[in-house]
Structures are given as C-alpha cells and as structure tokens.
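Input sequence (306 aa), recorded before submission:
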Amino acid sequence: MENLLDILSPQERTVLSFRALFESKGYRRIKANRFEEYRFYLENINFLRSEQLITFSDLDGRLKALKPDVTLSIVKHYGSNGGLNKLYYIENVYRPGPTGRSFAEISQMGLECIGKVGKAEVSEVLYLSYESLKLTGKPFRLSVSHVGFIAGLMKSLKVPTQYRGALYESIASKNPLGLRMTAEAAGLSGENIDFLQKAALLSGGADKVIDTAFKYCKNSEMHRAVGQIKDAIDGLDSSNILIDFSIRGDEDYYSGLMFCGYIKGRSRVVLSGGQYDNMLKKMNKEGRAIGFALYLSELFGGERHA
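Predicted structure, token format:
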C-alpha cells in the first residue's frame, strides 16, 4: 500500500484524505448525473449562481443542460427517505468563468447531510469543513455567519424591503459609506444607522465576537442565529475561526448557518457551505439539509482530479 501511495501526487493524496475523513463519519460516495433536463434548472433558477447554462438537445429532442450545481441533483435524486442521508461526491460543474466571457469546468468535492438533520449533524458538518481545511497542511481560516442575524437586524430596524438588497451588497463588500448612504435613503435615524454599521460589519475571532454579537441582538431571530453559531463551532479551535456577518447569503438558498474557508496562498474561497432547508421545501422533500463544497480547481491551482 505504501508503494501505491508513493505514485500519487500530493493533491491526489489530499483528496484521499478528504475521502477517508468523510467516510469515517459515515458518508458514502455517490455519482451525480453529468446533465439534467434544462427545465429542472429553470424551475430552480433561484438556487443557481448564474442563469447561464451550457445546453444541448438530446436525441429525443428534449433540451438538456450540463450541471452547474451538484447539490440540486443530489436533492432531486436522493432527497430524504424519512431518515438521514450522508453523502459525498467528487464532480465537475460547468459555470461561467471568472471573466464572464466563457464557461469553465470546475472540479469540486463536497458532502451533503439531508433529512433528519439536528444540532449534532450541523456540528458534525462544521467539524468536517474545519478538518478538511486542516488537511491541506496550510494555514487556514473558517469564516462563519448565519442568515438570521442580518435578516433579523433588518426587521428590527424596520428597513423598507426595497432597500435591503442594496444594504446587503454594502455589507458584503464591507462598504460603510455605501451602507450609510443607503440607510439614510431608507429613512433610518442616525442612531439606528450607527447601530446597523456596528452590528452588520461585526467580524473577528470567535472567542471575542460571539459575546459581542449577543449584545447586539434586538430580537429572537438574531439571538437564535448567534446561539446556533456558538453551538456549531463548540469544540473547534477558535483561533482558526472568524465570525463574519458580512458573508453574502442568498435568503432564497440559505436558511441558517453559512460558512466559507480560506487557505494561505489562495486569494479566493476554497470551501463554502451552509444550511439549505429552502431547497428541500421547494422540491417537496422532507427534512433539513446542510453541506459544503471544496473547490479542488482553486485548492490545487486548476488541476483536474477524478
């Protein structure tokens, strides 16, 4: 076995380590379809990063599309059987590239926990995301947020619906001036604008920010969000965890925790995930769901892995 491992590249050995980690917690590997009917993606367009798809006509005349997302296919074909599905995959997806002028084939590996997902399963997925970053052997950071914190904040300050999108954008880009200007246009008082800036742009080490975040909670939704973050990261080394409420989360997609991972030497996110109960509801599936994806193309500098 040692001789067999010797012929593998460092990247291939890392992927094997990811697989061993996932399987040690009872996740089984599945193979997703390379394409689905275009209509399927059209019906679930709110869960896609882009409306641009690579399409083709099948031999029977039906319009198909190369998959731009793995999670949608997994929920469609596995969903929930009344129990708990713990699945992982190694797949390629097809999306517009960084320049937006051409499509890119993106290699990713990830896991999905679907069905009877409770507090223990959520904590396990956060643990697996943390350990996956650790297995890269490089300094890393896991940033964690919760869609309920900012959503609850907007409600507590009575921000008019038509201004929330612009505020979310300013928060995501950490733009205090843009946030203030939009909040003024929305009619918020100076006191509420100051509070909005402090709470929405709150970020820092988990050991310090959690307590501060609780102090900023103005309603049960915000309090529940911070409490779920605290429970989910309990037991992890807080020195590698950043609480950052500026993480952009689409409320159509995410329903709770959101998180993303970074490693030294890579400017872009190499891991992202969160809870996506809304997708199950949209497809008339029972239960809850949480998962994450590791972007192998980004992690290993564009190399492909089977």
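Checked by second reader. Residues 302-306 have pLDDT under 50 and may be disordered.
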